[in-house]
Amino acid sequence: MEGNMESLELFFRNNMDYVFLVYGFAFIFMGVSIAIQPRSDSQLTLARNIWLLSMFAFLHGINEWIDMMVFTHPLQDGLKTASFIFCITSFCFLFEFGRNSVKSCAGASIGRYFRYLGWWLMPLVLVLVLIFAFSSGQWLRTGQILSRYFLAFPGAVMTAAGLLLYRRETNIVESSRHDKYDKYFVAAATLFLLYGFFAGVVVPKGGIFPSNIINAENFLSLVHIPVQVFRAIAALVIAFSILGIIKLFNYEARGKLEVTIQQLYKREAC
Hints:
The structure is a single chain. By secondary structure, the chain is mainly alpha-helical. It has eleven helices and no strands. The longest helix has 29 residues, at 77-105.
């Protein structure tokens, strides 16, 4: 059994570039798919905020492809800097999507608990992360760890909560089948929680707590599979689930077009 796990670990170590390739492709495809949806006239609250999720997916997908190049060219400091910029920027968009989603969808009964989720929260967290990062000896590593703790993890949790709140709006779309889309919202929310753990808790090894205990290296020694593999799997399922969710926009646009055509027919009949 131990020999099989070591063989599995060796396999992934030798093919990490493909893992980054799939990881990046899943998110980039998701980001582009969201961006091209006809949602300008949508009645759904999701339509106003989902561009933030599109930006997260697109930028983080690029980040993973840069990490693929870092894996094959580890001495290129420029690539590491670019990876840091794309990574932290993408997490800012994820945080904002989650914050906007929870705040805009929370009903009056629970909305008071989210009144402090103002627009200033993400910039404040970002500034604090950068201050602590640049004041450390290893600003790239420290900045990435802190951005995962304070942007990626809470962003993923808020995104999961927001998606569960958004699913209540599917009945706004006339004649929509709630159960048809419900499974996609639940799947996306569940996988974002898992992604929040794999991307926001299992971080690169660092000198700050708890990254000195819970980190990618210790995870690999325990599971024998790199955490990036689990992130890639989560990204694939998230992308598939989001593609199911955004069908709502097409359904809504098609329904409006059908209503318009029927009205034209009635006018001609009169």
